[in-house]
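Students often ask what a holo structure prediction actually looks like on paper. The answer is less mysterious than it sounds. You provide the chain, you provide the ligand, and the output is a string of discrete structure tokens encoding the 3D arrangement of the protein together with NAP.
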Amino acid sequence: MKIGYIGIGIMGLPMAGNLLKAGHSLYIHNRTLSKCDSLAAQGATVCASPAEVAENAEVVFINVPDTPDVEQVIFGSNGISQSARAGLTVIDNSTISPSTTRQFAERLQDKGVEYLDAPVSGGDVGAQKGTLAIMVGGDEHVFQKCLPLLEILGSKIVRVGPVGMGQTTKACNQLFCALHMLACCEGISLARKAGLDPAVMVNVVSSGAGGSWALANLGPKIVADDLDPGFMIDLLCKDLRLVMELAQEAELSLSGINLAQGLFNKAQAEGLGRLGTQALCRVVGKSDSLNA
Ligand code: NAP
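The corresponding structure tokens follow.
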């Protein structure tokens, strides 16, 4: 198929690369065009704008940071909607607002363009290996049509409901990620202060009921003070803003994630935003953390 991919970043680069390796013709665009160089060397066609991508492709994927970025890609000058025609399908892999996603889909529907929100989980490693979890919102017939493409990118692909529900699922996922990370940082901090080797604790607890993906994968990094991203604190702060907006719309008070959001925002304010989420360990386990 002729596939478009817009947003060639930490996630987009390996995901688009897997579509190319699977034998599809790939049309790509990124704001900083030089990020397209490595895929171009493998045979992808670099386009000057999202409109040019949509002109060439049957299905266009988007993978950019936040809600206004997706809006710019679709509806901005030289956006997808400028050249969109009936029959085009847009699949958004970004993590953005569920309610705004529904508005985007409605605006595109007027042009006969179909839409799936398909945010992913599994990090850059899952993107490289093609083993992402993909939570998809959209019509069943669009989902079935696009499933073979999604199966190239992920190993767990679930249609969770109509448009917007993929993003709603991802918000729940991010709530878990933030609370698990807070638990990891506090547990490792407690082990250290109590005179226990934190690496030994992480090793055994990872296999018990207190274990989690975060503890198994990022616990050893916290112990080794390896704070490189993975997934940046800046992006998690964006996601926790989306979680809190969703909770507000649902008129739900969530005290645990409210506390975690305060701590991640504190880490961001202290200049740790470009580090991995495990850098939360720099602000928890300190006597002033309760005042965050
Ligand atoms: P990233 O490395 O910052 O990549 C985003 C890319 O989008 C950048 O290359 C950026 O280009 C490009 N971009 C931004 N606005 C654009 C526009 N208007 N037109 C064209 N290109 C544009 O971020 P990422 O880590 O891949 O994350 C992307 C999305 O996936 C986010 O919503 C994130 O929450 C989600 N996600 C990330 C992970 C992870 O582990 N990283 C895991 C799951 C989900 P520039 O170089 O010009 O800035």
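Residues 98 and 167 are 5 Å apart (CA to CA).
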